[in-house]
Amino acid sequence: MLNERELTVTARALVAPHKGILAADESIGTIGKRFAKLGVESTAETHRAYRDMLFTTQGMEEYISGVILYDETIRQESLGGTPFARLLAEKGVIPGIKVDSGTVDFALHPGEKIPEGLDGLRERLAEYRSLGARFTKWRAVITIGEGMPSRACVFANAHALARYAALAQEAGLVPIVEPEVLMDGDHDQQRCETVTEGVLHSVFAELNRQGVLLEGILLKPSMVVPGKSAPRQGSLQEVAEATVRTLLRTVPAAVPGIAFLSGGQSSEVATAHLNAMNKMGPHPWELSFSYGRALQEPALTIWRGEAVNVAAAQQAFRHRAQCNSAARTGEYTPDIERQQ
């Protein structure tokens, strides 16, 4: 039987005031590419040392409500010998887990993708809960281009997200539903807004069809921004207004929170966009963050795999978390940015 109270309490805790989610769920391939740019060897032990540096940062729990882990990480221990999921929980940070298996080409639709991972998901969710996870994440990607996204791709991704969410709730885990509209391309902001609105309408129609408890989920959308190659980029206010307008048209007020992905934005721009949106509040839902690179990149660049750099890297990570915490209430300023 669905434990509605537990799901609702956990979902609300993940978007608690002044806090957001750290996405530390990079696949082995993705973290390997980031390490390679800095000349850091990519092994299970270097991944462990890096995650340990982030998770043991003193005071991170003031700004971080939850951490999305990768399969490798949830099975690892900190350098001090405590399982990472338990280390986080003891700090009051909720452990979560990425459960999709990545994207593959969508059959008969060149250039479009579909995530895999539904087969065997019920059993994997039960194991992840036993390992300490209390929430989950599944990412779908939508590409904007000529003739894209197709209706078939939008529907297939929305359906997979809803099936995943239902299985997660059945297992007592809060699902983060992530339909990412990619920034790649030269499309303008209006095109992104139109596509995002259609995707979110489809996602919530499927969630409703599958009987998913909306009070026990979080949405992790992309912001409404022009393509990276677009000749004109939107201002902070234009992005904030378009994103909030789209969410008001599509996301039921029953959803407790929206935790944005950064989607390739720089650390400072992702924070500034979140801040501009919260300055427009109050909103029907909490507007929070679930950033990966936008929270980690300054710390990773300082760390470079060297133990001697851990303290400085942790300071950089804590600073980015603090900046995003301020953006949760629209109080982020250049002065806060310079305080590091």
Structure description:
The chain is an alpha/beta fold and 340 residues long. 46% of the residues lie in helices and 14% in strands. The protein has 13 helices and ten strands. Helix 10 runs antiparallel to helix 11. The termini are far apart. The model has no long low-confidence stretch (mean pLDDT 97).
Concise overview:
The protein is α/β, with parallel strands linked by helices and 340 residues long.
How many structural domains does the protein architecture include?
A: 1
Output the CATH class name: Alpha Beta
- The CATH architecture classification is Alpha-Beta Barrel
Residue runs with pLDDT of under 50 for 5 or more positions: none
Provide the CATH superfamily. Answer: Aldolase class I
Number of helices: 13
Strand arrangement, major sheet: 8-7-6-3-2-1-10-9
The CATH topology: TIM Barrel
How do the helices and strands line up, and which of them pair or pack?
Elements: H1 4-14, E1 20-23, H2 28-37, H3 44-55, E2 64-69, H4 71-74, H5 84-90, E3 94-98, E4 103-105, E5 113-115, H6 121-130, E6 135-142, H7 151-170, E7 174-181, H8 189-209, E8 218-219, H9 236-250, E9 257-260, H10 267-279, E10 286-291, H11 293-303, H12 310-327, H13 334-337
Parallel strand pairs: 1-2, 1-10, 2-3, 3-6, 6-7, 7-8, 9-10
Antiparallel strand pairs: 4-5
